[in-house]
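Sample 3 of the quickstart, ligand iron/sulfur cluster:
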Amino acid sequence: MYKKAINMYNPKSTKAEEFISNEEILDTLKFINTNKNNLSLIQEIIEKAKLKNGLNHREAALLLACNDNNLNNEIFELAKKIKEEYYGNRIVLFAPLYLSNYCVNGCVYCPYHAKNKHIPRKKMTQEEIKKEVIALQDMGHKRLAIEAGEDPVNNPIEYILESINTIYSIKHKNGAIRRVNVNIAATTVENYKKLHEAKIGTYILFQETYNKDAYEKLHPTGPKHNYAYHTEAMDRAMQGGIDDVGLGVLFGLENYMYEFIALLMHAEHLEALYGVGPHTISVPRIRKADDIDPASFSNAIDDNTFKKLVAVIRISVPYTGMIVSTRENAQCRKDVLALGISQISGGSKTSVGGYYKPENKDEDSSQFEVNDNRTLDEVINWLMELNYLPSFCTACYGSGRTGERFMSVCKDKQIHNFCHPNAIMTLKEYLIDYASEITKSTGEKLILKELDNIKDKTRKTEVEQNLKLIENGERGFKF
Ligand code: SF4
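Result:
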């Protein structure tokens, strides 16, 4: 639709400076500056987005820059529609699990940076991980995202692999962690192979910022200083056999428009080269933490910009899961759920050992301040009252629907035939095993309503039979 810039931009390259081309980003910024009041062009892009096949980074950036109220309302309505069509009303739940906050890097926005000498440093033993996982299972969690600082001595890959093994091995009462996503530092193809063999779910790595100059200043010391090595991590993960990868930017570090364009370019790169885009996109915003004051970062984005960002990512990359954490408060989470978010964390602790042993203030090892302090049960009840269907499903992963296979199921909007019934069955497990009386009663009513939304009669009968078996104590049904 638009003249291609003459620059190094090459989505099929494996070199960071070519698939995240600074020239192409600057060119796109010029393009949106010239066209941001070109309402007919914006309308044309909205019409293209209505086909629900996504947008490229230039088109998406122009929608994000649009200031016209009527067109913005159209963009928000379209985001809601696309979310509904691809994901229905399901919201997947997960919890972060911090294994260790030892870190050799110098990231200026993170309290785990090596120069912070007063934050308590902790690394869980396998025994402590067991206790932590039992506490998480007792809340009802089935899906975790493990986190650890980068430290080859304290947190080598062997420690991460052993911890994953421990997490999967724990079967406490009816509990089980069925999917372990991993958020650790960029590493080698060899190590990604090992993570793949350890049966991780998604490999998540936030870029923090795509702007190379800013990146190098924000990561002054440690291995993370290497922009290309960090930016090319997903390529190495793919080469190591991990086909579900999760992208993200820490919004607030740099100009959000620059980050947004680059984030979409990264998604385009993965799709162009590996035929599979990001499994998830996370949208964290910088938050207060031990020695970190968010006011010292001048690029913070307000709630309205944040909502628009979520909506435009949703219509630009319709198939991707979108994640919002407890960095955001309940009201903001409610707003962005409608606009595109499909996964949220609940009952989260961002400190090492925070689930089995709640921190006293002096020992606080949190990575950031949580703005939604509700329990998982409260979050589940709240979601259901908002007419969402909470899901603890991990079936795609267990059934090999990952990478390209998952994407084609998702792009064909087939996800409803698997995910919706699976959400109902995993919610039922949660209600029986972990829910408070009030949540149970809201949930049972919701399940009856959702059963009526299963159009395929055979599938509906199967789900009803499985629900009975779940009542009789069986667990782990999935399609
Ligand atoms: S962001 Fe990660 S790498 Fe950087 S200091 Fe924090 S834990 Fe270490």
